[in-house]
Each structure stands twice: as C-alpha cells, then as structure tokens.
Amino acid sequence: MSTKTHIARGDADEAARRAVAIGRLCTEAHLKELWESHALRGEANASVLKAAADRGNQKKQSRAETSRMTWQAMTDEMRARNPHLGKAAVGRLIAGKTGDNPDTVRRRIKLK
Questions:
Q1: What is the pLDDT of residues 55-77, one digit of tens each?
Q2: Residue 95 CB partners (closer than 8 Å, separation 6+)
Q3: What does the domain layout of the chain look like in residue ranges?
C-alpha cells in the first residue's frame, strides 16, 4: 500500500513510516547516482595500477633471478678452487666484485 492509501484511511503512523522509508530510498538512490561514476573510476584506476605493478614486479623478479644465477655460478667456481670457504666469506667476495649486498648474496647462494 502507498502512503496516500494510509493517509486516506486515517492511519497517520503507518503513513509516516512509509514516507520515511521512501525518503530514505530516494536519498540512497541520489547518493549512489552521485558517487557511482567516482567509484567506477576508482575501480578502473585500481586495475590499471595493479597491472602496472605486476609488470614492474615481473621485471624485478627477472633481474633478481639473473643476479642469483650469476652469484651461484661465481659461488660454484670459488668453491671449486677453495671448498673450505663458507657462505659468509663467499658472499663477501662476490659482493666485493658485484657491488651487491653481502648479506643478500649469502642468503641466496647454496653451497654444493
């Protein structure tokens, strides 16, 4: 039943409840209309930024993998010449040659 029907019947309480509910729905629809374009633009921006971040991360991972392979090859060569070298010593030697962080090198290499 509509608000007008309740007014015609003399049911002011129910008419007022219906009017408030209808007013709330109208306000909600108006706010959604105002903000929908902003929300959709934000969603589009987020997907573009995520795609750019994914591409950047892929590049970084590729460079890191290349560095790790180089460090491991250098480690294998050094250990072939001197099998008593530990990870810390090898990490420092490699870092001295490549300019990388010795702790990072130490954590990424494997002694065979």
A1: 999 999 999 999 999 999 999 99
A2: 101, 102, 105
A3: 3-108
Is residue 109 within 8 Å of 71, Cβ to Cβ?
Answer: yes
pLDDT per residue over 91-111, tens digit each?
999 999 999 999 999 999 999
Of 66, 63, 71, give the one whose Cα is nearest residue 110.
71
Task: Say how far residue 34 (Cα) sits from the centre of its chain.
Answer: 28
Amino acid at 58: Q
Taking the alpha carbons at both ends of the chain, their separation in whole angstroms is 82
CB 108 within 8 A of CB 68: yes
Structure-token match 């409840």, residue found: 17
Q: What is the DSSP string of 33-48?
A: HHHHHHHHHHHHHHHH
